[in-house]
Amino acid sequence: MNLEALEREITHCRRCPRLVAWREQVAREKRASFADQEYWGRPVPGFGDPDARVCLLGLAPAAHGANRTGRMFTGDRSGDWLFAALHACGLANQPTSVSADDGLQLIDCFLTAAVRCAPPSNRPTPAERDNCLPWAKGELELLPRVRVVVCLGGFAWDAALRLRADLGEPVPRPKPRFGHGAELPGERLTLLGCFHPSQQNTFTGRLTVGMMEEVFAHAKELAER
């Protein structure tokens, strides 16, 4: 299987009834400011450079972001922060992303998420996470050059620990704790922690663009070793 075939499988997934119902309800009812747009309303696959050495792992699509546009972090304020930082570090060809056909290309980077459907209140359950993780595992298996996974938030950190174990790298004990700048070396995959670029973090100053750029620059450095 290649990434394109895996993407087709991901976009037809209906494993989690609660998430299926919610993503489709949001796509029907829409936000008033996007009432004239057709929502994606399906699971969102990862995207990026098939030769990437850096992988970014998020939480899940935003209800009116990726669930609308069909591309991770595209069309929401979290993405505004994320792509600006990626561009500043040479990991994207442009600093903004508003639609799936806006010309954005990731460079040496692949962007995906632990859960592929927009969850109510942005809170997937552990069971939904576990249902979805095989998709991320499949992507990583098809991205043999990836050496660093940047985990955007604690949920993604915990998911990445499970992914590493599924790929043959046991989780150390005690379990490494998430934090901004946390680092867990590995034989194949090194994990880096980064606060999620949610409005809760960016509006309060808990996360700045400079902080994100530092993590992404370090990820590039590790991937090039």
Write up this protein:
It is a single chain. The chain is an alpha/beta fold and 225 residues long. The protein has a single domain, classed as Uracil-DNA glycosylase-like domain (Uracil-DNA Glycosylase, subunit E). Helix content is 38%, strand content 11%. The protein has helices spanning 3-11, 17-29, 66-69, 77-88, 126-141, 154-166, 199-202, 209-223, and strands at 47-48, 54-58, 109-113, 148-152, 183-184, 190-194. A six-stranded mixed beta sheet has the order 1-3-2-4-6-5, with helices on both faces. Strand 5 (183-184) and strand 6 (190-194) form a beta hairpin. Helix 4 crosses helix 8 and helix 5 packs across helix 6 (154-166). It is globular, with a radius of gyration of 16 Å. The protein starts with a helix and ends with a helix. The relative contact order is 0.16. The mean pLDDT is 96.
Tertiary shape: globular
Major β-sheet profile: 6 strands, mixed
What is the multimeric organization of the chains shown? single chain
Q: Radius of gyration over alpha carbons?
A: 16 Å
Name of the CATH class: Alpha Beta
Quick one: CATH superfamily? Answer: Uracil-DNA glycosylase-like domain
Report the structural category. Answer: alpha/beta
Would you list the SSEs in sequence order as H and E?
Answer: HHEEHHEHEHEEHH
CATH domain topology? Uracil-DNA Glycosylase, subunit E
CATH architectural grouping: 3-Layer(aba) Sandwich
Regions with pLDDT < 50 over 5+ consecutive residues? none
Number of strands: 6
- Distance from N terminus to C terminus (CA atoms, Å) equals 29 Å
Overall pLDDT confidence: 96
